[in-house]
Amino acid sequence: MTQKILIIGGVGGGATVAAQIRRDNQDAEIIIFEKGEYISFSNCGMPYYIGNKIPNREDILYATGDFQAKYQVDVRVHAEVTAIQRTTKEIEYRQDSQIHTESYDTLILSPGASAVAPSFNGMDMKRTFCLHSIPDMDAIHSFIEQEKPTSAAIIGAGFIGLEMVENLYSKGIDCTLIDQSSQVMNIVDSDMAQMIEDHLKKNNVTVVLNDALYYFSNQGQTLHLNGGTSIQADMTILAIGVKPNTKLAEDASLAIGDTGAIKVNAFMQTNDPNIYALGDVVETKDAIIDIPRNIALAGPAHRQAFIIASHIKGQQIPYKGTLGSNILKLFDLTIGSTGLNTDRLKSLNRDYETATLKTMSNASYYPGSGEIWLKVLFSKQDGKIYGAQVVGFAGVDKRLAVLATAIKGNLTVTDLPELELAYAPPYSSPKDPINVLGYKASSKLEEK
Fold first, then answer.
1. b/e map of 70-83 (b: 16 or more CB within 10 Å)?
2. Is 44 marked active-site?
3. What domains are there in the chain, each with its CATH number?
4. Is the pLDDT of residue 2 over 90?
5. Its domain of life (predicted)?
6. Strands (E), 197-340
7. pLDDT tens-place string over residues 226-245
């Protein structure tokens, strides 16, 4: 009997799991319901299209017709699923102003997350934007091309906020970055964040911390902050964060975890074994410490798609948790982190130690070397690595990759000096920065 699999939501989670299932099963009936127009696109590429680093809009889109033809999947766009009937194994969805139903054998939830976009008094929606979808991207791009803004305020100093600063700046737009926290980029520790803040200021970005937007005036062109100051901006980007889209799951009495995302087991099943979930909407466990995590990153979503497809065909391959490895480009600076940071370890009452290193990415006499800062957080007792952060102008990505792999491989800081990493002057030093960081961390263990 042909298996009927319905997938709610496309993009990184839904489209990937559909493709993976089709590779494993040529006979299954697969239907994707996407409430928007686009079945698959690169969220991560959107800021770079706005900044003209990706000049062709189509390069970040996967045409629906091409996806359907390649994977033999029934894709229904502009189809918003409104209810899940678990007892009858049906969904209800709205398309063309009509309500339809569809039965399923297996249901996969990939509704993603939505941008947090509070309403402020005086806000002008024509010049105030979020960036979470292709229509959002098109609206920003169109505003810049038509209105020629010369100034922008960016609310939120996380991934999207910092990427938008770089790309708006590249369009000749003066940027003011505002965040209610005491530092930019809360995913890294304050000492690493200070380097990021300094780099922003070096590139003529105004940074306002410990303050938040209160209201707008002057047709949305004047931002009044809680602290009493005001800022003039032709446009505003709200990059406050995202929230998992859990309403469908909640209405269907599926379990919601402590993080506010859908709770799943190691095989990405909800508390209904016929319903799976993945991507930005799910709560999984941390890969280092057994605590719940909700991570909105593409890499984990792709792995979760493989886990689900494998489980549907009878292979029990567990999802072993999320490290949250991430990387960001900010002008010519690269920022990356993996695992847990100081704030998280303190909240968990973990006894930890840190080691930091400032050095050059490769042989200083070779052209192109740049400063790089590394930090590792580890157990005082046994050297277990809890997390790591890397900031610098060259070689950040490979050092971060090594540290993330070390955590996954259960290496300790005492193993880092033993790693035999390739050396030539254009790439490293005879003792790679990872090795040196390991020596520094190991010496702190020896002092105990």
1. ebebebbeebbbee
2. yes
3. 4-114+243-312 (3.50.50.60), 117-240 (3.50.50.60), 332-446 (3.50.50.60)
4. no
5. Bacteria
6. 206-208, 213-217, 222-225, 230-232, 235-238, 242-244, 262-263, 275-277, 282-285, 292-293, 326-330, 333-339
7. 999 999 999 999 999 999 99
